[in-house]
Hints:
Two copies of one chain form a homodimer. By secondary structure, chain A is of the alpha/beta class.
Amino acid sequence: MAMKYLTSKTAAALDQELMSTGAFSIDQLMELAGLSVSQAVFKLHPPQKGNRVLVACGPGNNGGDGLVAARHLWHYGYKPTMYFPKQTKNELYARLRQQLNDLKIPFTEDFQSSITQTDYVVDAIFGFSFSGEVREPFPAVIQALRDSKVPVLAVDAPSSWNIEDGPPSDGPGKGYNPDALISLTAPKPLVKWFKGRHFVGGRFLSEDMAKKYDLDMPPYQGIDQVVEMPVGEERL
Amino acid sequence: MAMKYLTSKTAAALDQELMSTGAFSIDQLMELAGLSVSQAVFKLHPPQKGNRVLVACGPGNNGGDGLVAARHLWHYGYKPTMYFPKQTKNELYARLRQQLNDLKIPFTEDFQSSITQTDYVVDAIFGFSFSGEVREPFPAVIQALRDSKVPVLAVDAPSSWNIEDGPPSDGPGKGYNPDALISLTAPKPLVKWFKGRHFVGGRFLSEDMAKKYDLDMPPYQGIDQVVEMPVGEERL
């Protein structure tokens, strides 16, 4: 059975529906998304394997998921460091930042140095609404992600990948293949090109919504907020 | 080492501080509190032991935690039924209800019949701000909780217990001793009288806040949002 996907457009529509008729607040959805990201990190790289995690956050909701994930990672015993160069005045993001400040989680402005001093990286730069070109200061960040030997978990999309068409054929993201990916709510078409470990998270989809958007309910187990999906040919 | 407690007053102050200088929204805190409640239910009574759960919700934040918990329980494979007789017009509660409606989770008005047709009960009627007397329609509900053989998990307090002084010496809650209790953020003084299994949940306390309110950081393990505490003499 082929995997079913949310395109950039349908992912935006589903998010909008969750927050209108679905009655979720963005605080709620982001909390559950970020929690899922943190659980995927724990499964992929438990703190005993090295507890320094560098979390790169973009200016939009993908970055917000990263801010939430970092808070949970701290509670699990990790030592997160944040890279969040495009801080907007958005009230939600200001609050999520304050929550990290209260845990004394440091923010760095130097991604290139920080990536040499971490055990794991979360790429929460661009998500399903990304298209077009990578703007400053992110080209060098994505090149560093591509060139580093440190394992990376990408949130919803490897940053710079096209949501429908996958890896870019030129630009800073050419050749960027993170070790792992967590798809939020449902996979995006780019997973067809993804070779690493793949998780789905964001356990809040109703059966009616899954049906309406022609999605499979991910096979979550027990209380897990993430589920690992088969990769490569297994999934076809 | 004696367990440290949050009184009714300090619990209210801590909640207020989390939402002001701590920058948490009530959506976030309630989501994490309700998630903790759902994880405690899963540990105490996994769905294989009987997946019908009756969730009794009061009119305040304790009831809100129950509404969130029920949604997560549905995702874990339970079949929740809600008893929520005092529905306010509060926008947050209306949204949490809508989320349950979208999962087709039924609401009952007849607690006494429903408790004969369930495998487990969550008592989310009154929390740390309860004092004084039990108002209608809850006296008969608390008597049913007391008299039923179905196991009960109480959220933050067995409803009708005094937060500082424990079990009431008369009224509908006299003799009401739930099987289990989950303390949110930190235990309240009433746990000194509690004989069942005891969990702590609500994994969002910073070390600074714990210090300020003279609390121990609960010994959470891994990614768990709850931790079981020693009971009786072990804890002194």
